[in-house]
Description:
Elements: E1 8-9, E2 12-21, E3 24-31, E4 36-42, H1 49-58, E5 69-72, E6 76-80, H2 87-91, H3 98-117, E7 130-132, E8 138-140, H4 145-150, H5 184-187, H6 195-210, H7 220-229, H8 239-248, H9 292-311, E9 320-324, E10 333-337, E11 343-348, E12 356-359, E13 366-367, E14 375-379, E15 385-390, E16 393-398, E17 407-410, E18 420-421, E19 426-430, E20 438-442, E21 449-450, E22 460-468, E23 474-481, E24 488-493, E25 506-507, E26 513-515, E27 519-524, E28 527-534, E29 539-540, E30 545-550, E31 563-565, E32 570-574, E33 582-587, E34 593-599, E35 604-608, E36 614-620, E37 626-632, E38 637-640, E39 648-653, E40 659-664, E41 671-676, E42 684-687, E43 693-698, E44 704-710, E45 716-723, E46 731-733, E47 740-745, E48 755-761, E49 768-774, E50 789-790, E51 797-801, E52 807-812, E53 815-823, E54 827-829, E55 833-836, E56 842-843, E57 850-855, E58 864-868
Antiparallel strand pairs: 1-2, 2-3, 3-4, 4-6, 5-6, 7-8, 9-58, 10-11, 11-12, 12-13, 14-15, 15-16, 16-17, 18-19, 19-20, 20-21, 22-23, 23-24, 24-25, 26-27, 27-28, 28-29, 28-30, 31-32, 32-58, 33-34, 33-57, 35-36, 36-37, 37-38, 39-40, 40-41, 41-42, 43-44, 44-45, 45-46, 47-48, 48-49, 49-50, 51-52, ...
Amino acid sequence: xxxxxxxxxxxxxxxxxxxxxxxxxxxxxxxxxxxxxxxxxxxxxxxxxxxxxxxxxxxxxxxxxxxxxxxxxxxxxxxxxxxxxxxxxxxxxxxxxxxxxxxxxxxxxxxxxxxxxxxxxxxxxxxxxxxxxxxxxxxxxxxxxxxxxxxxxxxxxxxxxxxxxxxxxxxxxxxxxxxxxxxxxxxxxxxxxxxxxxxxxxxxxxxxxxxxxxxxxxxxxxxxxxxxxxxxxxxxxxxxxxxxxxxxxxxxxxxxxxxxxxxxxxxxxxxxxxxxxxxxxxxxxxxxxxxxxxxxxxxxxxxxxxxxxxxxxxxxxxxxxxxxxxxxxxxxxxxxxxxxxxxxxxxxxxxxxxxxxxxxxxxxxxxxxxxxxxxxxxxxxxxxxxxxxxxxxxxxxxxxxxxxxxxxxxxxxxxxxxxxxxxxxxxxxxxxxxxxxxxxxxxxxxxxxxxxxxxxxxxxxxxxxxxxxxxxxxxxxxxxxxxxxxxxxxxxxxxxxxxxxxxxxxxxxxxxxxxxxxxxxxxxxxxxxxxxxxxxxxxxxxxxxxxxxxxxxxxxxxxxxxxxxxxxxxxxxxxxxxxxxxxxxxxxxxxxxxxxxxxxxxxxxxxxxxxxxxxxxxxxxxxxxxxxxxxxxxxxxxxxxxxxxxxxxxxxxxxxxxxxxxxxxxxxxxxxxxxxxxxxxxxxxxxxxxxxxxxxxxxxxxxxxxxxxxxxxxxxxxxxxxxxxxxxxxxxxxxxxxxxxxxxxxxxxxxxxxxxxxxxxxxxxxxxxxxxxxxxxxxxxxxxxxxxxxxxxxxxxxxxxxxxxxxxxxxxxxxxxxxxxxxxxxxxxxxxxxxxxxxxxxxxxxxxxxxxxxxxxxxxxxxxxxxxxxxxxxxxx
Length: 877
C-alpha cells in the first residue's frame, strides 16, 4: 500500500515517492535526528533478525562510491539519498564515450574492490543499481543486499525481487540475480564468489561502450542460454578496452580476472610501451605495480589466450536450472507454461487459490481477479488467453483485456481432469468428476459433445489430462483403468472415425506431455523420462532416456503430474512431495495425546469399529491411488482391505462390525461396495449410478445403508437410503433443496423407538449441523419423520455420535465441539462447548477417545523449478 506524505516510519517522515525498487517502493524521507533527507525502501515482508544483522554488516561499508546504508527497520531500509540518473537511464541516450565510460568503470571498480576486501559481494550489479551524480561521482546501490536478502528465504516470501531467493553461496542449484548480468556459473545455480561481480562489471562496460545489451534474449530463457553460450562481438569494442573485457567476460571463472583492483593493468595502454619503471607499491590497493617486463610477458600471454579463444569451438549449450517460491503459500501447485516459454500460470491446490501469472523467472507475479478456485490451467495456442476450471465452470481469461472478467466457455467441468486448447478452436475437457471420457466444446463457448468414450472391455475408469499435438487434430490423454496394464497415455483424434493405435502409447500412472522438440515426457515412478516421438506419424522413433528431474504428484488428484513444457525447450515442475507414513494420534477429551499409531501414507476418513478395537482408513498406494486399510488399534498393525481396482475411499462399518462399505470408481463413476472386514470373500456391488456416492453409515438394525449422492457437477445435494434386504432399491431421503452431506445415524433408538440422523446442510448460507428423527422399520417414500433441529451455533461439520446417542461431536474450524442430546417426547439440545483445538477424524464409541490423522513429517512449502534447454541433457546419452 502506498504511503502518503507525512506518514511516520519510526523516526522518519515520508516526503514523496521516488519509484519502485527491487525490494518494493522507494520514498524520499526526512530524518529529524540528523537533519537530513534519506531514501527509504519499503518491503512487503518483515525482516528477520538474521537479515538485520547482515544489513548492519553491510552498513560498515564506507566508500565514496558506495551508497551508504544508514538503518534498518522491521520492514524498511534507510539509505543515503543520491540525486541524479541511473546508468540505465543514461544508456537510453546511446553509447558512452570511451574516456567517460572508463571513468565510470573505474569508480564502479573502486567500490567493488572496497567491498570485496571486506568479504561482501554484490551479485546483482547492473546499470539500474548505479547512480550518476551531477558532479561526476558514481554511487553503487544495494551493495550486498542481494546476499543479505537471500538469508530471509527461510520462512519469508520472495515475490518482490529476483534476488529474494535461497542464497546460492550456501545452496547449489538456485539462481539469484538479473539474467542479463549474471555469469554462466550463476545462471546454472552454481557456487559464486567475487568473480560474479567482475563478470557483471564487464557486461556493464561492454554495454556502455556499445550502447546495447550484451545478452538480450527475447525471454529470460533465451537470455540465460546466451549467457552460457554467446561470445561478445569484440570488433565493436575499442582496442584499448578489449584485453580488459576479455579477462572480465571469461566464461570459465577459473580463467576470469580474479581481483577487480587489477583491472586497470589490462587496459591496452595502462603501461606505456617502452617505459621502464621501478616497482612501486600502490598504497590504496595494497598490490605491487607491474614493471614493463612483466607487462610485456602479460601481453604475450594475453595474445596467446586470444588466439586460443578465437580458434576454439563455441561451448555446447547446457541445461540451466533454477527455482523460486510461488507467489502464494501452498504445498502443491497447478502449473502451465505458456507456448513460447516466457510465462507461467499457476495456482495453489491445497489452499484458497487464484490464478497467478508471472514471467518464467518469477518476477512481476500478478493475481488475476475473478479467478478464485482456478484449477486445470491451460493456455491458448497463441498465448493470449489462459483457460481454467473454477466452481465446475470452464472459463477463459483474455490477457489482452486484463480488466475484463473471465468468460464462461461451458459447464459443468471437472476441476481435476485438465484441459487443452487446439489451434482449430476446440477445447477438450472432462464434463464431470464421475467417470467419463473427454468432451469437446468450441473455444468461444457452447454445448459440449463427446470426444472420447470409456472402453468397457479395457475396464477404463476415466479419461483425463488431454494435450493437443502440433497438428491441432490429434491429442494425447491419460486413461485410468481398473487393470494396470491398460493405465497410461493414449492417442485421440477430433475425427471420431479415424483409426488410432490400440492400447497405451506408454504405461504410466501419471499424465504425459509432448514437447515440440520431438519428445514425449512421462513419469516412471518419480523419474521424468523423455522418448523421441514422431507427432505426425504417431509413433516413437527411439528409446526412452531419463532426465535428472524428480517430478511431484499431488496425493489427492490421481494421474496428475506437476510439470509443463513449452515449444522452446523450457520445462517447469514441482519437485517430489514427501510421501512418508501418516500417523493417528489417539487423544483424550482434553486433547492430550494418549498414543500414536503409524498409518498408511495419505490416510483420511478414519472410522472406528463398534467394538473400538479397529479403525478403517483410506490410504495411498505407491501410485498415490486410494485403498481401504484396517488398523488394529492395540497392536498398531495395518492390513490392506482393497487393492488395485480403481480408487477405494471412505470406509464405514456395519453395526455388528462384520462389514465395511466404501466407494470405488473401478467401473467409472464412484459406486458403493461392501466387503467383509476380515478381508475374506469378494467385493459386493451395492449401488450403481452415473453420479458420485459417499457412504455415510448403517441404521442401528443393519437394514439400511445411508449414503449421499451428487448431482450435476458432483455437487452434493441429497441423502439416500439403501435397503440391505429385498430388491435394494434406493429410497430418496433428506431431499431438502439444499446441499446435504456428512449424514450420520445414531447408534441407538430414542424413547419413541426411532433413530436420529445428524447431518450438515447449508440452508442458512453456511454449513451447520442438524438433527432430525429417522423412523424405525424404514422411512417409506415419505422421508424422515419430524422437523429438523439445528445443533451448531456458528458453523459445523463432521458429526459423530456417542454410542448411547446422548452426546454429539462435530468440528468447526480447528475446534472439536461436543453437545448433549436428549430425545424424549420433546428433544433437548444442550449448548455446544469446545473440547480442544483440533479437527477430529473419528470418535470412539464411548466418546472418550478421539482420533486425529496427521502427516508424520511436515510437508515443505512448494517451489517452482525451471529447466531451460533441457534437451541438452539428452545429447550425451
